[in-house]
Amino acid sequence: MQTTANTLKAWSVTRYGGPETLAPVTRPMPVPQANEVLIRVRASAVTRADGMMRSGTPRFARLFLGLGRPRHDLAGTCLSGEVIATGSAVTRFAVGDEVFGASGLNFSANASHICLDQDGVLLKKPEVLSHEEAAVMGDGAVTSYNFLHEVAELRAGQKVLILGAAGSLGTAAVQIAAAMGAEVTGTCSTRNAGMVASLGADHVIDYAEQDFADGTERYDVIYDTLGVSSFRHARRALTRTGRYVCPVLSLPLLFAALRTSMFGTRKARFSATGMLKPDVQRAMIGRLIDLAQAFKFTPIMDRSYPLDQLIEAHRYVDGGHKKGNVVVI
Question: Going from the N-terminus, what domains does the chain have, and what CATH number goes with each?
Answer without folding.
Answer: 7-136+299-328 (3.90.180.10), 140-274 (3.40.50.720)
